[in-house]
Write a structure and sequence with these properties.
Blueprint lengths: L2 H40 L8 H38 L1
Length: about 90
């Protein structure tokens, strides 16, 4: 196992984590922005008002993107196993 292989696996792992987290983070960001605009317009400064919509948005996003996320995880895992099999020979 070469250092380049290990660095490549690390780079792919970071890319995979960012790809998997991006939809949920974007959903939470958009919902947070909408609620912040609503709070600024109505001058309601309730801090707990943002938690439930964000949690629901992240859960719905997770349910929608779950098949895609599983495909990404499987591709990454298979790539690691194939790379290890190639390096081992």
């Amino acid at each position: 196992m070469t250092p380049e292989f290990v660095v490549d696996i690390g780079r792919q792992a970071v890319e995979t984590v960012l790809l998997m987290a991006a939809p949920m983070l974007l959903a939470a960001l958009i919902i947070g922005l909408i609620i912040s605009i609503f709070q600024a317009a109505t001058q309601i400064n309730e801090q707990t008002m943002t938690f439930i919509p964000k949690i629901v948005a992240v859960l719905v996003t997770l349910l929608i993107f779950a098949p895609w996320m599983i495909k990404i995880m499987l591709a990454f895992t298979l790539g690691i196993f194939e790379g290890l099999a190639t390096v081992g020979t």
